[in-house]
């Protein structure tokens, strides 16, 4: 990896993200078609300093706000939704260190981040009762260390990671995060992801066979949920930003296609499809979906930042509800706008060789991460009865 830049402020982070998004957009369709994993692009992302922008200022980072972080993800996802998905868990597990890490752990890992190191993800498991039924185990050893055993699926980022944060149960069945080197003995990362969308995230399997873990690489994640928390709100905010980015990217590509490649319908009597008032009407409707998702995303990010400045049960609830609203709207916009691309662009847009369907495939795949119907339930309970949402980290 080349020398790693250290970003100093929010404005610089946004400028770097915009530059990288423009670069990544160029090869996004080909990477998807060929399922060519974005190793070089991720190295560019690491070297740019973007992966360290939430490192606290006292440790040398920019400590950017949630509004900036969400915009970074929106920009990247509008260019390449697979590439934007890979660091989503990275930032979620940076937050775990910020909240639960000891001063020594923070010093070590924040230095790793500033050096361009990447966190992956090994949290979800297949065949269990539900998403929070975690069966991977951290078994304590006489010397205070642990041995880690389990199998993880949907492990986005693990294949490209320097460190793999692993969600596991330890003593008393309490939830912990073990930060394990990608090349640690007993760690096997399998590139077996075959999703119809987000094809180049390499969200495959991680096998953990008696992996030795020093005590100072384990954090008590269960403590995160014993008081007001923003862990789930931040993680879901980034998912919402990815969906909003997919929607915006699909709309931009649809408009470019209609302007440059579509023929007018013969009954319109017009010379250009872009002059068709029926298409103009439809693009206006689609733009409202995209813009409303972006507006709710910004509002949610502001709510997260406000809660971080004064974290109470009430402010945490307000942030979670705002993020839930943003996620619901962005998910709807991503699927609907990406599907409408074909409606407005016409028959030629369905050619497999053009790969315009990648926007819909990415949207349909990414929006399955967690059901929006439950987010709407929590919004309704909060608005009608003042019921705060639960502290389970997925809202």
From TrEMBL:
Domain Acyl-CoA dehydrogenase C-terminal: 237-370
Domain of life assignment: Bacteria
Keywords: Flavoprotein, Oxidoreductase
All residue ranges annotated as the Acyl-CoA oxidase/dehydrogenase middle domain in the record: 129-211
Occurrences of domain Acyl-CoA dehydrogenase/oxidase N-terminal (ranges): 16-116
Keyword Oxidoreductase: yes
Family: Belongs to the HpaH/HsaA monooxygenase family.
NCBIfam families: sulfur_SfnB (TIGR04022)
Record's protein name: SfnB family sulfur acquisition oxidoreductase
């Amino acid at each position: 990896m080349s020398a790693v830049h250290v970003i100093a402020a929010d404005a610089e982070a946004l400028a770097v993200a915009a530059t990288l998004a423009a670069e990544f957009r160029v090869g996004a369709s080909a990477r998807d078609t060929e399922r060519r994993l974005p190793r070089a692009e991720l190295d560019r992302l690491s070297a740019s300093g973007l992966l360290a922008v939430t490192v606290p200022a006292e440790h040398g980072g920019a400590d950017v706000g949630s509004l900036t972080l969400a915009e970074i993800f929106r920009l990247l996802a509008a260019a390449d939704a697979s590439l934007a998905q890979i660091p989503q868990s990275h930032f979620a597990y940076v937050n775990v260190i910020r909240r639960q890490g000891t001063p020594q752990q923070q010093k070590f890992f924040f230095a790793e981040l500033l050096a361009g190191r990447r966190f992956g993800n090994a949290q979800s498991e297949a065949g269990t009762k539900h998403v929070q039924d975690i069966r991977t185990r951290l078994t304590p050893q006489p010397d205070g260390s642990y041995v880690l055993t389990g199998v993880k699926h949907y492990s986005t980022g693990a294949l490209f990671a320097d460190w793999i944060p692993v969600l596991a149960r330890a003593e008393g069945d309490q939830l912990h995060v073990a930060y394990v080197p990608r090349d640690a003995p007993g760690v096997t990362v399998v590139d077996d992801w075959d999703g119809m969308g987000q094809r180049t995230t390499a969200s495959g399997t991680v096998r953990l066979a008696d992996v030795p873990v020093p005590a100072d690489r384990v954090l008590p994640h269960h403590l995160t949920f014993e008081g007001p928390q923003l862990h789930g709100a931040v993680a879901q905010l980034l998912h919402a930003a990815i969906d909003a980015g997919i929607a915006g990217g699909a709309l931009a590509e649809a408009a470019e296609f209609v302007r440059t490649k579509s023929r007018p319908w013969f009954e319109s009597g017009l010379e250009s499809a872009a002059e068709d008032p029926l298409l103009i009407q439809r693009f206006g409707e689609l733009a409202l979906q995209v813009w409303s998702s972006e507006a709710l995303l910004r509002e949610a990010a502001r709510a997260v930042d406000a809660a971080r400045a004064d974290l109470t049960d009430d402010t945490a609830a307000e942030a979670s509800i705002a993020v839930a609203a943003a996620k619901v709207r962005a998910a709807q916009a991503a699927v609907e706008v990406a599907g409408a691309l074909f409606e407005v662009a016409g028959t030629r847009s369905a050619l497999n060789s053009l790969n315009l369907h990648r926007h819909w495939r990415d949207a349909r795949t990414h929006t399955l991460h967690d059901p929006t119907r439950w987010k709407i339930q929590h919004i309704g309970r909060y608005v009608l009865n003042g019921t705060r949402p639960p502290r389970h980290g997925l809202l």
